[in-house]
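Q&A log
Question type: sequence-to-structure
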Amino acid sequence: MNIVFWSESQGRCATSGNMLAVSVMSSLIYSVKGIVMQLDNCSRPIDDVFEGKRQTNLIMEEYSYYNQKGIDDLLDKSQLKEIDLSDLKDNVLPIKNTYMGYIPTSKRIKSGLSDRELMSNAKKIMTLMNEVGGYNFIDCVNGDKAVTKKLLSHADMVVINICQGMNVEKLMLSDNIMKKAVFLIGKYDDGSSESVLDICKKYNINRDRVAAIPYNIKFHDAMNEGSLVPFLSKQISVRRTDNNFAFVNGVYRATDMILRRAGYDETREASRR
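Response status: OK
Response body:
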């Protein structure tokens, strides 16, 4: 099951942060297995978020200059042959203390990759990810681009990231994409004049398809420091009176909504483990 996170507004709705929070929470709370991948070229690389300072040490085996793992290795191999499941698995690194793995972010996408090359390779990688199984979380290219809409069409489920005060009157997506979409309000502020219900009315969406995650500076710091998993692990049982409760509760509710909509069944998944 490929779950793609996307926003029409670049850099405003915390799309990457929302995807990372939900993917890690799904593994910590529900023991979900899967792969995390980033196609967006403007966000902080997920390698840094999961590995932190390790990422700067090129002497280490996983990240040596001559042994780059990740999307770029898959792109290189795709020029020589049709990439297969073994190629994908070779480029998935474990996320410590979770059941998830991640594909290191492409430097080539950041420096410039044609939409045609990105689309064809990303669709192939997404197909292979589905063959692995589990619940895969993909940070897609934001904005209103043809390549993005093709990848959204190829996804099993789409998480549309929106925010308070957006000037977009209508999300220009096809009916097929909207049918498999849920909505996530990033950087949500209870003090704003635009509430969750206001946003539901604005975009004509049902309340049970919307979740909100408040902004949290500790979460932001954890991503910058490469300590996202330890941070969320410590916050799972946080008390209601804690300053981080609203954020953690928002991530939990968003994760639960997304997984249930994706067909997650706790009894069935437990029998597989």
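Response note: The chain has one domain: 2-272.
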